[in-house]
Design a protein that fits this description.
Length: 147
């Protein structure tokens, strides 16, 4: 019950009307389809995040979850084993896992955050190393639970 509740809240937050890729209510099948509907700035940031995820976890699988780009950090990984992203008019959203957000709470202090999300403004440099560290941390946590 709690899991469904969290997923519904996440979905509601991920699909606001301000999201450039979702304004026309399109249903995306690939990350490339999603990214193609974004502004140039948001597109560049999402492509960079995509590269960071794959550089950090080469085996990450791309998928669409809640009509947003997602990366399963293990084969067939469900929501708690994924990092999701979204493009908006003024920022990109990164949706790791609440535990990842807690671990990086102090480092993320300069950004707008939620329980399981962080917003990176398009008018500031993308914190590439921070994103890589977050991806690596989540992957390590996933691997620990599988042992």
């Amino acid at each position: 019950m709690i899991r469904v509740s969290f997923e519904r809240r996440l979905m509601a937050k991920c699909l606001p009307m301000e999201s450039e890729a979702n304004m026309d209510n399109a249903v995306f099948k690939t990350i490339d389809e999603y990214i193609s509907g974004l502004s140039q700035e948001a597109r560049l940031y999402l492509e960079e995040i995509r590269k960071i995820v794959h550089d950090t976890v080469p085996e990450a699988e791309e998928l669409i979850n809640y009509n947003m780009p997602a990366f399963a950090l293990r084969k067939g990984g469900k929501r708690d084993q994924q990092i999701m992203v979204a493009g908006y008019k003024k920022h990109v959203g990164l949706y790791p896992h609440p535990a990842t957000m807690m671990h990086f709470k102090e480092t993320l202090a300069e950004y707008k955050t939620g329980k399981g999300s962080v917003q990176f403004p398009l008018d500031k440099p993308l914190p590439k190393q921070l994103i890589a560290d977050m991806v690596k941390y989540l992957k390590e946590q996933i691997d620990k639970t599988l042992k």
